[in-house]
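Look at one such:
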Amino acid sequence: MAAGESSRFGTAKQLLPFGDTTLLGHVVRNVNRSTVDRVVVVLGREAPEVRSSFESGPAVVVDNLSYGEGCASSLLAGLDEAGECAGIVLILGDQPGVKAAYIDSVVTEWRTAPHWASATQYRENLGHPLVFAQAAFDDLRALHGDKAVWKLIEGYPDRVLRVEIDAELPPDIDTPADYEAELARIHR
């Protein structure tokens, strides 16, 4: 999901230079390198410019015209595009540290032992990617606003498989300081 307004950042962070691509381009590349069957990228603010700023590869890119209503609207746009499927994987467009290997660990675990949902447990913290089975789609479609998915995860802990990854939680890029810190980290 990359349809946020970047209100804390002040500019469309999806367009930020990141290595040989953009911040969003890096995230999409990581997802495309994973074992997920199909990738859907959901755009919002400045969608035409963002769309032309990165190589989508095999990913399908869709616009969320209701992006101002929060993350749940992007989730709905992604669900609509995904159509009939066994489950969906949620990844944020501002977390370049979510590696293909992390995605594959969670997806493989979910495919082996399908749960209503699976969440990535980074040492002490839950994070993305999240996997939701088709059985959760009605609950996902009922969500509104921001952070709604986390309310589902917290509200149904007995339905959520935690998949442990021995790594620190990849940071969100929410502020210019976050961006500079992530650039410094990748250039070490």
Notes: Residues 1-6 have pLDDT under 50 and may be disordered.
